[in-house]
Design goal:
Order of helices and strands: HEHHEEHEHHEEEEHHHEEEE
Distance between the termini: 54 Å
Oligomer: single chain
Strand content: 15-25%
Largest sheet: 8 strands, mixed
Radius of gyration: 23 Å
Helix content: 25-40%
């Protein structure tokens, strides 16, 4: 009888331990334990994460932290895909896109095709603070920046000049033209419409893995305030005037303090068509786990562009976070940074693409 009672207690203990493990350990692919504040940003851009985290620790606002964090990447020229001296367009010029969004007020400040001004996300924040607009573009955005006290600076470097020169020497390959003459797959322009148009089916394959990236950042403060931001110099050899997903609210990033925030990176020409950041936040609003929300967004795009290059990060108002990416040759994992009180310091994390 005593042995029976001992065996019964042992079974109870085992059952309790198993239940505790189920509670403590997240399911495969789920986000880590939630804690606030949280800073999450695309790619292994550690200095950006560290800068944003220091701003929060010193009492700065979430808007300050996003601006400074993304701004750090502009200074560091992260991966050559953010800030000056990277991704020259077809004329050899580097232009910048950036956005910042306040999830409390739903205000957005953004700039696109910004020229000769280095601190793009700083200018984007000034759009919120000093205008009733959301997005300023091109030469007019640069004039606005100067009025706000930003200096004109050359965004061209020896590296961007070399990239441009090499591209010209390769008959301007790759490029973003189609259905034009001369044949854009064999020569440089100037291109024009042919006399008789024979449309080719659009290819939804990204031209190359990491042809262009973005710093996307989401910050959720201890009070639940959600702010997001992006900065990029866009697609390499883009057609002048091209604007990608980064400065578009709901595409490049989205923040809503009643639900969470998200930010996307990758082939913006494809991803922006699906408003992935907005969609991810709406999934989280319905109670979907951040990782699953990110995966659902990627799966939706896959149906139309199975070989697109892209990834997304998500965080909800509890501080739970996740990420997802589309699996293609050369891109099977996505690295991103997370900072919260449980991690102790900005930490690089990795997810397998789906």
């Amino acid at each position: 009888m005593a042995a029976g009672r001992g065996g019964g207690w042992a079974a109870v203990v085992v059952l309790v331990v198993l239940l505790l493990l189920l509670v403590v350990l997240p399911p495969p692919g789920a986000a880590s334990a939630a804690a606030l504040p949280v800073v999450i940003n695309t790619w292994a851009f550690r200095t950006a994460a560290e800068t944003a985290w220091r701003v929060l620790e010193s009492g700065g606002s979430e808007l300050d932290a996003v601006e400074r964090g993304c701004g750090q990447c502009e200074i560091d020229q992260c991966d050559g895909s953010v800030g000056y001296g990277g991704s020259p367009d077809e004329s050899g010029e580097t232009t910048l896109d950036a956005m910042i969004m306040d999830g409390n007020t739903m205000e957005v400040g953004a700039v696109a095709d910004l020229r000769r001004v280095k601190n793009a996300i700083g200018v984007a924040r000034k759009v919120i603070e000093y205008t009733k607009h959301t997005l300023l573009v091109g030469e007019s955005a640069s004039l606005f920046a100067v009025r706000m006290g930003f200096p004109y600076e050359d965004l061209t470097t020896q590296k961007s000049l070399s990239l441009y020169s090499e591209w010209l020497n390769q008959s301007c390959q790759p490029n973003y033209w189609k259905n034009v003459v001369p044949d854009s797959s064999k020569s440089c322009g100037p291109y024009k419409r042919p006399g008789k148009v024979t449309y080719k089916e659009e290819q939804t394959v990204s031209q190359s893995v990491q042809n262009h990236d973005t710093i996307g950042m989401v910050i959720i403060g201890v009070s639940g305030t959600v702010v997001s931001g992006t900065s990029t110099n866009g697609a390499v050899h883009k057609i002048p005037g091209r604007v990608g997903d980064s400065p578009i609210a709901g595409a490049g990033s989205y923040a809503d303090s009643t639900a969470g925030g998200a930010a996307a990176t990758g082939d913006g020409d494809i991803m922006m068509r699906f408003l992935p950041s907005y969609q991810a936040v709406e999934y989280m609003r319905m109670g979907t786990d951040p990782t699953v929300a990110c995966q659902k967004v990627i799966s939706r795009i896959q149906k139309y562009a199975p070989k697109f290059f892209g990834a997304i990060i998500c965080a909800n108002t509890t501080g739970s976070y996740g990420a997802a990416c589309n699996k293609i040759p050369g891109f099977t994992q996505f690295h991103f940074m997370v900072s919260n009180p449980l991690l102790g310091r900005p930490t690089e994390q990795v997810v397998d693409c789906i």
